[in-house]
Design brief:
about 130 residues, alpha+beta, 4-stranded antiparallel beta sheet, two-stranded antiparallel ribbon
Length: about 130
């Protein structure tokens, strides 16, 4: 058992190892790839998080995980009011498990969106997963 963020790191490490093997491990590579895709599919969606999640495997590793998505803002009348592309960066933290930072050009009138995204992404990454 472990947490989602740990599972991402474990699966990414195993997937990269399969890709770097000579010859490539064509038996296990697709299994790790599918597991990563399943974890990405579990990322928060809805309530404004309407973009497609992308896990940046190239710039992620044991010391950092990087995700991209888009947030669909709504105005006070319930109408859609534009998109903000954002990045969620995750680093290990010995005291708290991980640190999360949400980066993006959020409009000033929607500055609280960053806090909302931090909360829901943090919650997902801290969920327990089975084997």
């Amino acid at each position: 058992m472990g947490k989602v963020y740990q599972e991402f790191a474990k699966c990414l490490g195993a997937w990269k190892a399969c890709c770097e093997m000579v010859p490539r491990n064509h038996e296990w590579e697709p299994r790790w790839d599918k597991r990563i895709k399943d974890l990405v599919d579990g990322m928060p969606h809805g309530s404004g998080i309407d973009g497609e999640w992308v896990f940046d495997r190239e710039n992620s590793g044991n010391d950092e995980l990087n995700f991209y998505c888009s947030y669909h803002h709504m105005d006070e009348y319930g109408g859609y009011d534009g998109w903000t592309d954002f990045k969620a960066r995750v680093w290990p933290d010995l005291q708290f498990g991980f640190r999360l930072r949400i980066v993006g050009p959020f409009p000033k009138k929607y500055s609280d969106t960053r806090d909302y995204l931090h909360e829901v992404i943090d919650c997902y990454l801290n969920e327990e997963v089975g084997e």
